[in-house]
Amino acid sequence: MASLLAVTVFFGSVSPLSPIDESSIVQAAAKPPATAFKSKVTDVVDGDTIKLIYKGRKETVRFILIDTPETKKPNTCVQLFGPEASAYTKKVLLNKEVKVELGVDTRDQYGRLLAYIYIKDVMFNKTLLEKGLARVAIYKPNTKYLKELQAVEKVAKGKKAGIWSSVNARNGGCAPKVATAPKPAITKPAPKPTTPAKAEVFKNCTELRKKYPSGVAKGHAAYQSKMDRDKDNWACER
């Protein structure tokens, strides 16, 4: 990721990438040396960082001589073309067998392996530069393919590919935030209306007391104001 690198200029663009065509990567670069080892990519962290198995252990691998726009760096926005670079790396490398050529310095200050990655015997570091999804980043002594990769970057700039398509992208501008649709409000069903009690009609208090010896309060189905002579809201009380 960009934190490692002393680089050229910064990322981005606003135009979407064309659909990924894995067959196009056969045009990319030199074949791996005999010292390169085979491994399977188990995870993609972002555009220039992956995870694979090395000597029986899961290792994080940072690509040499390139830098893709940031997507996960603390206190840094998601930069233009960062998501596209990550998506492309994931599309091409995830769960694929690759060849890994370690650098002269095999690890960085974070303990990550430093390497050139080859898929179908084509250097993927170089492919990212061709697509405009990365820029050259120089950290000596890992400069074996520097001139070759600088030449590829120059062509990508001339074509205004990817990050070279706008000033904002070249300068590491932030990608627009994807608006998330608000969650629909959960409305509780309206309570079912209560059916009022059916009125009980009695001719007089004598009849009412046969059923309700102490009389009834106002609101009761049998309450009638004419039986509440003292107007205390209680009918037919004794």
TrEMBL record:
Q: Where is this region: Disordered?
A: 219-238
What is this protein identified as? Thermonuclease family protein
Against SUPFAM superfamilies, the record matches this protein to: Staphylococcal nuclease (SSF50199)
Q: Which Pfam families match?
A: Excalibur, SNase
Determine the domain of life of the protein's source.
Bacteria
For bias type Basic and acidic residues, the affected ranges are: 226-238
What InterPro entries would the database entry show? Excalibur_Ca-bd_domain, SNase_OB-fold_sf, Staphylococal_nuclease_OB-fold
Keyword tags: Endonuclease, Hydrolase, Nuclease
Domain (TNase-like): residue spans on this chain: 35-166
The record's section on SMART domains has: Excalibur, SNc
PROSITE patterns, from UniProt?
Answer: TNASE_3 (PS50830)
